[in-house]
Amino acid sequence: MSFEVIPAIDLRGGQVVRLRQGDYAQETQYGSTPVELATRYAQAGARWLHVVDLDGARAGDLANLSMIESLVKAGMHVQAGGGVRVEEDVHRLFGAGVSRVVVGSVAIRAPDIVSTWLEKYGAERFTIALDTRRRDDVWTLPSAGWIEDEARTLDELAPWYAARGAKHLLCTDIERDGMLAGFNLDLYGHLAKTVPQLAVQASGGVRSLEDIRAARDAGARGVILGRALLEGRFKLEDALAC
Question: I need a surface site. Which of 26, 42, 63, 227 has the fewest CB within 10 A?
Fold first, then answer.
Protein backbone atom coordinates (compact mmCIF):
# COMPACT_ATOMS: atom_id res chain seq x y z
CA MET A 1 0.00 0.00 0.00
CA SER A 2 1.41 3.40 -0.98
CA PHE A 3 2.40 6.07 1.50
CA GLU A 4 1.60 9.66 0.48
CA VAL A 5 3.51 12.78 1.46
CA ILE A 6 1.05 15.64 1.01
CA PRO A 7 2.02 19.32 1.24
CA ALA A 8 -0.66 21.62 2.61
CA ILE A 9 -1.82 25.14 1.90
CA ASP A 10 -4.07 26.87 4.43
CA LEU A 11 -6.01 29.79 2.97
CA ARG A 12 -7.33 32.86 4.76
CA GLY A 13 -8.35 35.93 2.81
CA GLY A 14 -6.77 34.38 -0.28
CA GLN A 15 -3.34 34.26 1.41
CA VAL A 16 -1.13 31.41 2.66
CA VAL A 17 -1.29 31.30 6.46
CA ARG A 18 -0.72 28.94 9.37
CA LEU A 19 -2.50 28.93 12.72
CA ARG A 20 -1.11 27.68 16.02
CA GLN A 21 -3.38 24.97 17.48
CA GLY A 22 -6.21 26.18 15.28
CA ASP A 23 -6.29 29.59 16.98
CA TYR A 24 -7.33 32.31 14.52
CA ALA A 25 -5.69 34.89 16.78
CA GLN A 26 -2.31 33.15 16.33
CA GLU A 27 -1.89 33.48 12.59
CA THR A 28 1.33 33.63 10.59
CA GLN A 29 1.20 34.88 7.00
CA TYR A 30 3.71 33.74 4.39
CA GLY A 31 5.00 35.73 1.45
CA SER A 32 4.38 33.33 -1.42
CA THR A 33 1.03 33.43 -3.14
CA PRO A 34 -0.97 30.18 -2.97
CA VAL A 35 -0.48 29.54 -6.69
CA GLU A 36 3.29 30.16 -6.51
CA LEU A 37 3.54 27.74 -3.60
CA ALA A 38 1.43 25.06 -5.28
CA THR A 39 3.51 25.35 -8.44
CA ARG A 40 6.70 24.80 -6.44
CA TYR A 41 5.20 21.77 -4.73
CA ALA A 42 4.13 20.30 -8.07
CA GLN A 43 7.58 20.88 -9.55
CA ALA A 44 9.11 19.11 -6.54
CA GLY A 45 7.13 16.01 -7.48
CA ALA A 46 4.14 16.05 -5.11
CA ARG A 47 1.17 14.04 -6.36
CA TRP A 48 -1.36 15.45 -3.89
CA LEU A 49 -2.05 18.86 -2.36
CA HIS A 50 -4.12 19.41 0.80
CA VAL A 51 -6.03 22.71 0.89
CA VAL A 52 -7.88 24.13 3.90
CA ASP A 53 -10.26 27.07 3.52
CA LEU A 54 -9.89 28.55 7.01
CA ASP A 55 -12.44 31.29 6.31
CA GLY A 56 -14.90 28.61 5.22
CA ALA A 57 -14.21 26.40 8.22
CA ARG A 58 -15.12 29.25 10.52
CA ALA A 59 -18.08 30.71 8.64
CA GLY A 60 -19.55 27.59 7.01
CA ASP A 61 -19.15 28.61 3.37
CA LEU A 62 -16.61 28.08 0.59
CA ALA A 63 -15.00 31.49 0.92
CA ASN A 64 -11.88 30.64 -1.11
CA LEU A 65 -13.45 28.51 -3.84
CA SER A 66 -12.00 30.51 -6.74
CA MET A 67 -8.51 30.20 -5.26
CA ILE A 68 -8.99 26.44 -4.81
CA GLU A 69 -9.93 26.23 -8.50
CA SER A 70 -6.69 28.03 -9.36
CA LEU A 71 -4.66 25.63 -7.21
CA VAL A 72 -6.12 22.62 -9.03
CA LYS A 73 -4.51 23.96 -12.20
CA ALA A 74 -1.04 23.56 -10.66
CA GLY A 75 -1.21 19.93 -11.76
CA MET A 76 -1.63 17.91 -8.55
CA HIS A 77 -4.59 15.98 -7.23
CA VAL A 78 -6.23 18.26 -4.67
CA GLN A 79 -8.10 17.30 -1.53
CA ALA A 80 -9.83 20.35 -0.14
CA GLY A 81 -12.23 21.30 2.62
CA GLY A 82 -13.23 23.92 5.11
CA GLY A 83 -16.84 25.05 5.16
CA VAL A 84 -18.43 21.98 3.55
CA ARG A 85 -21.86 21.76 5.14
CA VAL A 86 -24.36 20.71 2.46
CA GLU A 87 -24.34 18.64 -0.73
CA GLU A 88 -24.19 21.76 -2.90
CA ASP A 89 -20.77 22.49 -1.37
CA VAL A 90 -19.61 19.04 -2.46
CA HIS A 91 -20.86 19.74 -6.00
CA ARG A 92 -19.06 23.07 -6.09
CA LEU A 93 -15.73 21.56 -5.02
CA PHE A 94 -16.01 18.73 -7.51
CA GLY A 95 -16.89 21.35 -10.13
CA ALA A 96 -13.71 23.24 -9.24
CA GLY A 97 -11.71 20.11 -10.04
CA VAL A 98 -11.08 18.83 -6.51
CA SER A 99 -10.30 15.10 -6.45
CA ARG A 100 -11.30 14.50 -2.82
CA VAL A 101 -13.56 16.61 -0.65
CA VAL A 102 -12.52 16.89 2.99
CA VAL A 103 -15.51 16.84 5.35
CA GLY A 104 -14.94 17.84 8.96
CA SER A 105 -17.65 19.51 11.02
CA VAL A 106 -20.47 17.96 8.98
CA ALA A 107 -18.82 14.54 9.35
CA ILE A 108 -19.05 14.93 13.12
CA ARG A 109 -22.46 16.58 13.36
CA ALA A 110 -24.32 14.77 10.57
CA PRO A 111 -22.60 11.45 9.86
CA ASP A 112 -25.73 9.96 8.29
CA ILE A 113 -25.68 12.66 5.62
CA VAL A 114 -21.99 12.12 4.90
CA SER A 115 -22.63 8.39 4.68
CA THR A 116 -25.11 9.02 1.85
CA TRP A 117 -22.47 11.09 0.04
CA LEU A 118 -19.97 8.23 0.31
CA GLU A 119 -22.50 5.90 -1.27
CA LYS A 120 -23.62 8.36 -3.93
CA TYR A 121 -20.28 9.71 -5.16
CA GLY A 122 -17.90 6.96 -4.05
CA ALA A 123 -15.93 6.74 -0.83
CA GLU A 124 -12.66 7.31 -2.69
CA ARG A 125 -13.75 10.90 -3.35
CA PHE A 126 -13.91 11.92 0.31
CA THR A 127 -11.53 12.35 3.22
CA ILE A 128 -13.19 12.21 6.63
CA ALA A 129 -11.46 14.76 8.87
CA LEU A 130 -11.76 13.90 12.54
CA ASP A 131 -9.43 16.38 14.19
CA THR A 132 -9.06 15.60 17.84
CA ARG A 133 -8.02 16.92 21.22
CA ARG A 134 -7.38 14.62 24.19
CA ARG A 135 -9.32 15.54 27.34
CA ASP A 136 -9.63 13.31 30.40
CA ASP A 137 -8.30 10.31 28.43
CA VAL A 138 -10.92 10.79 25.70
CA TRP A 139 -10.19 11.84 22.12
CA THR A 140 -12.79 14.61 21.70
CA LEU A 141 -13.85 16.06 18.34
CA PRO A 142 -14.01 19.87 18.24
CA SER A 143 -15.65 21.32 15.12
CA ALA A 144 -16.31 24.62 13.30
CA GLY A 145 -12.63 25.47 12.99
CA TRP A 146 -11.94 23.69 16.31
CA ILE A 147 -13.88 26.26 18.32
CA GLU A 148 -16.93 24.17 19.29
CA ASP A 149 -16.84 20.86 21.18
CA GLU A 150 -19.06 18.01 20.02
CA ALA A 151 -20.52 15.10 21.99
CA ARG A 152 -19.20 12.34 19.72
CA THR A 153 -15.67 11.00 20.18
CA LEU A 154 -12.99 9.80 17.79
CA ASP A 155 -13.31 6.22 19.02
CA GLU A 156 -17.03 6.30 18.25
CA LEU A 157 -16.95 7.88 14.80
CA ALA A 158 -13.82 6.42 13.18
CA PRO A 159 -15.12 2.81 13.39
CA TRP A 160 -18.60 4.03 12.39
CA TYR A 161 -17.24 5.46 9.14
CA ALA A 162 -15.03 2.44 8.52
CA ALA A 163 -18.10 0.21 8.76
CA ARG A 164 -19.80 2.34 6.10
CA GLY A 165 -17.03 2.04 3.56
CA ALA A 166 -15.00 5.20 4.13
CA LYS A 167 -11.49 4.98 2.70
CA HIS A 168 -9.56 8.03 3.93
CA LEU A 169 -9.30 9.48 7.43
CA LEU A 170 -7.42 12.69 8.21
CA CYS A 171 -6.67 13.04 11.91
CA THR A 172 -4.92 16.03 13.45
CA ASP A 173 -3.88 16.20 17.08
CA ILE A 174 -4.97 19.80 17.62
CA GLU A 175 -2.56 20.35 20.49
CA ARG A 176 0.37 19.71 18.15
CA ASP A 177 -0.92 21.58 15.09
CA GLY A 178 1.55 24.22 13.99
CA MET A 179 3.72 23.56 17.06
CA LEU A 180 6.62 21.64 15.44
CA ALA A 181 6.50 19.15 18.31
CA GLY A 182 6.39 15.96 16.23
CA PHE A 183 3.44 13.73 15.37
CA ASN A 184 1.44 12.06 18.12
CA LEU A 185 2.57 8.53 17.29
CA ASP A 186 0.39 6.95 19.97
CA LEU A 187 -2.68 8.40 18.24
CA TYR A 188 -1.75 6.98 14.83
CA GLY A 189 -0.74 3.63 16.26
CA HIS A 190 -4.12 3.49 18.01
CA LEU A 191 -5.97 4.25 14.78
CA ALA A 192 -3.95 1.70 12.82
CA LYS A 193 -5.13 -0.96 15.28
CA THR A 194 -8.76 0.12 15.64
CA VAL A 195 -9.53 1.08 12.01
CA PRO A 196 -6.92 -0.69 9.87
CA GLN A 197 -9.20 -0.49 6.83
CA LEU A 198 -8.88 3.32 6.75
CA ALA A 199 -5.92 5.04 5.11
CA VAL A 200 -5.04 7.44 7.92
CA GLN A 201 -3.34 10.75 7.13
CA ALA A 202 -1.25 12.09 10.01
CA SER A 203 -1.28 15.82 10.59
CA GLY A 204 -0.04 18.25 13.19
CA GLY A 205 3.47 18.89 14.44
CA VAL A 206 5.89 17.46 11.87
CA ARG A 207 9.34 19.00 12.23
CA SER A 208 11.76 16.57 10.56
CA LEU A 209 12.11 13.79 8.03
CA GLU A 210 12.37 11.35 10.92
CA ASP A 211 8.87 12.37 12.03
CA ILE A 212 7.57 11.35 8.60
CA ARG A 213 9.25 7.94 8.80
CA ALA A 214 7.98 7.47 12.36
CA ALA A 215 4.38 8.20 11.32
CA ARG A 216 4.68 5.69 8.49
CA ASP A 217 6.08 3.08 10.88
CA ALA A 218 3.24 3.79 13.34
CA GLY A 219 0.73 2.81 10.67
CA ALA A 220 -0.21 6.10 9.01
CA ARG A 221 -0.66 5.90 5.24
CA GLY A 222 0.07 9.55 4.59
CA VAL A 223 1.35 12.75 6.19
CA ILE A 224 0.24 16.35 5.80
CA LEU A 225 3.11 18.86 5.78
CA GLY A 226 2.43 22.50 6.57
CA ARG A 227 4.60 24.80 8.65
CA ALA A 228 7.77 22.70 8.40
CA LEU A 229 7.81 23.15 4.61
CA LEU A 230 6.89 26.83 4.77
CA GLU A 231 9.78 27.48 7.13
CA GLY A 232 12.28 25.40 5.18
CA ARG A 233 13.03 22.80 7.85
CA PHE A 234 13.51 20.26 5.07
CA LYS A 235 12.93 20.07 1.34
CA LEU A 236 9.76 18.59 -0.08
CA GLU A 237 11.89 16.50 -2.44
CA ASP A 238 13.55 14.83 0.55
CA ALA A 239 10.20 14.29 2.26
CA LEU A 240 8.82 12.64 -0.86
CA ALA A 241 11.82 10.31 -0.87
CA CYS A 242 10.69 8.97 2.52
Answer: 26
